[in-house]
Specification:
Distance between the termini: 31 Å
Order of helices and strands: HHEEEHHEHHEEEHEHEHEEEEEEEE
Helix content: 25-40%
Family: Belongs to the peptidase M14 family.
Strand order of the largest sheet: 1-2-4-3-5-9-7-8
Number of strands: 17
Radius of gyration: 22 Å
Keywords: Carboxypeptidase, Hydrolase, Metalloprotease, Protease, Zinc
Organism: Aequorivita marisscotiae
Structural class: alpha/beta
Strand content: 25-35%
Cofactor: Zn(2+)
Largest sheet: 8 strands, mixed
InterPro entries: Peptidase_M14
CATH topology of the largest domain: Aminopeptidase
CATH class of the largest domain: Alpha Beta
Shape: globular
Number of domains: 2
């Protein structure tokens, strides 16, 4: 069986959408108690459990954590896809046996359960845990650092989501991005960074079969307050994963699949395990640009202006009654020549109305854009844009 077919038939279908909380995942965590070692090494600022899972018994110690930012849930879904894959007894048994014998994978599926509950980047105290690596002011940060010091990993996987704004000069979106964080302000290519870069090169080779030219690389400016930079500085190879956006997949169900393949590649389950790669190929991966918009309406005529402009719309993610709603707002007005929309439409020089208002104001929430002179023509409608 090909891995793509296994995934299609067996991914963890009980986890869907963007809102993934501790209440959602705990029943799945508990279902693995007989198969994996489950512990709770600490509590969140609001007293919620921070579950911790140990898989395998090999000498290669890998530490991973997801939902350090509570509203970044795609990699959490991918972790549970990975757990389901490792736990099944029908397919890829040779590869799984090798993984269990050679690796011990420790993972926090949800490091920030308070932020996850509230669907916020920060924890309950409004602190970005990925800027707390030195201060260690929050319980969640202390739990992660305590485990790092205790298990002494050989490799760390820092699992995140990125916004839909990233892409490349050729118009491709950055569906998944990676970073081998800097270990100092000079961005020295340390041995730890090289190891992380080699892993990313292998992952990129795997993903080329799925999303060619749509894997990105983050800027590696050093920030010691960030966890990845701190761990890299301590000599432990650390990979930053960033699950991004593709087409109209706002639930990130396709992107989770690519993160799943990336995890399998790290552990040598797919790809050419042990293949020699040149770390310098890491720098061939294009660096992310902030050049994508959720929607762009081109060639809009503004009243009293002979030139046409483009109007960009982005979505704010708003949690309401346990569902993440996507609220459109006007993000930018201008030529937008270097920007690309996941959806683009052409107004062909028409003047427009937004929610029956003539004035276009950046930052304003909107639900509809219509042709001012022909109100039967709708260029954008919130209810027909995306659905969670």
């Amino acid at each position: 069986m090909k891995i793509e077919q296994w995934y299609k038939d067996h991914f963890e279908s009980s986890l869907q959408g963007r809102y993934i909380s501790l209440t959602t995942v705990y029943p799945i965590v508990n279902s693995y108690k007989k198969n994996f070692e489950i512990t709770v090494p600490g509590k969140s600022e609001m007293g919620q459990d921070i579950p911790f899972i140990k898989i395998g018994h090999g000498r290669n110690i890998v530490l991973g954590w997801s939902q350090m930012h509570g509203n970044e849930s795609t990699t959490t879904k991918a972790i549970f896809d990975f757990l389901k894959f490792i736990n099944q007894k029908q397919y890829f048994q040779t590869e799984i046996k090798t993984f269990l014998e050679h690796f011990t994978f420790y993972v926090f599926p949800m490091l920030n359960p308070d932020g996850a509950c509230n669907y916020t980047r920060e924890n309950a105290n409004g602190i970005d845990l990925n800027r707390d690596a030195q201060a260690l002011s929050q319980r969640e940060s202390q739990v992660l650092r305590g485990i790092f010091d205790t298990i002494k990993p050989n490799l760390c996987l820092n699992l995140h989501d990125q916004r839909s704004i990233y892409g490349f000069k050729n118009g491709n979106p950055a569906v998944v991005s990676f970073l081998s964080p800097a270990a100092d302000k000079k961005r020295t290519i340390t041995q730890a960074r090289i190891v992380a870069m080699e892993h990313i090169v292998r992952i990129n080779k795997t993903l080329m079969a799925h999303i060619p030219g749509q894997v990105g690389r983050y800027d590696d400016s050093f920030n010691e307050a960030c966890v990845g930079d701190t761990f890299q500085k301590n000599g432990v190879p650390t990979l930053l994963f960033e699950a991004g956006h593709i087409a109209q997949d706002y639930s990130r169900e396709k992107t989770r699949e690519y993160i799943f393949y990336s995890l399998l590649t790290v552990f040598g389950i797919i790809g050419k395990s042990g293949e020699k790669v040149d770390y310098k190929e890491y720098f061939d991966i294009p660096e992310n640009l902030k050049n994508h918009k959720d929607f762009i309406l081109r060639n809009v005529k503004l009243e009293g202006d002979s030139k046409t402009v483009s109007v960009a719309i982005q979505y704010r993610e708003i949690l309401q009654n346990g569902i993440v709603n996507f609220e459109p707002f006007i993000d930018e007005i201008g030529s937008l020549k270097k920007c690309f929309g996941y959806i683009e439409k052409n107004a062909n020089g028409a003047e427009i109305l937004t929610d029956s208002q003539e004035n276009l104001t950046v930052g304003t929430n909107i639900s509809k854009i219509i042709d001012k002179s022909n109100k039967s023509v709708t260029f954008f409608h919130k209810n027909n844009s995306i659905l969670e």
